[in-house]
Amino acid sequence: MTATGAVLSRRHQMETLDPRSCHEAPAVLADVYLLKAQGDTWDGALALARELEAHGATVVNSASATELTLDRATMAEHALGEGLPFAATQAFPTLAAARERLDCPTVIKNRQAWRHDIVVRVDCFAKLDELPAGSMHEPVVVQPFIPNSGWDHKLWVVADQVFAALRPSILSATPRRAGRSLTEDALPGGWASLARRVGEIFGLEVYGVDIIDTGDGVPLIVDVNAFSGGMRSQPGGPEALAALALRSATSTSRAPGTPVSVIDETTRR
Hints:
alpha+beta; D-amino Acid Aminotransferase, Chain A, domain 1; Dna Ligase, domain 1; 5-stranded antiparallel sheet; 7 helices
C-alpha cells in the first residue's frame, strides 16, 4: 500500500480509514476504496467495507469476495466446488481434536487465514509438542503433504495482470534459500490462466495464489490471499494496483476529484 500510495499521491488525494476507529461511511464517499487489513482488524475492516457498499461505494476487493478467503475451510470448499485443483482440506475445531485423526505427513494451518502462527508440516505426532501450548486450542485445517520440490510458486494478480515469483516453501527444510521473480512466460503452461480463473471464481480483482508443482507442471493450489502484500516487491506491481484503483474510480457515477481511500490499519505505520 505504501508503494501504491506513492504512485497515486502524485496526482490524487489518498486517505486511510482505520477500521478500529471508523465504523460508518463518510458523508462524502471516495471514488474507490481499497480493502486491505491484517490480523485482528479484519473483522472491523469487513464491517466497514459492507457499510460503504451499502451506501453505494466501490470497494476493491468486495467484502463478500474477501471474506471467502479469510476462512481456509470455506475457501477450500468454494474452490473445490468450482473445480479448481485445490488441496484437499479438513477443518477441525481445535488442533487437539485434529491430532486424533492425523495421517502423517500432513500440513496444518490456522483456519483463520489472517493468523500466521500455525503453518507447519507434521511428520509425526511429536512435532505437535513443539508448538506453543495455546496452539492446541486453535481452529485449524489439515491438508495432506504432497511431495514437491520445496519451492512455492507465488502468483499475484491485479485485474488481468499476473506477477510471479519462486519462493522457498515455509515447510522447506532450507527456508533461507533466495527466491526470484518470474515472468508470466516462465510459468508452466496454463498456470497464469489458472490464476486468473481463481479471481473469476472468488470475485477478486487483487489477490495472491500459492501453487506447488506436484510433478511435470501439474499445479496444486494450497492457498488464496485477498490483497496479498507480496506483489509490492514485483516490478510494476504497485503501478498496476494504482491503475486498477483509478479505473475503478472512474467507473463510478460520483463526481471526480474525491479521494481514493484505503480501509487499512497498516499504512499508518
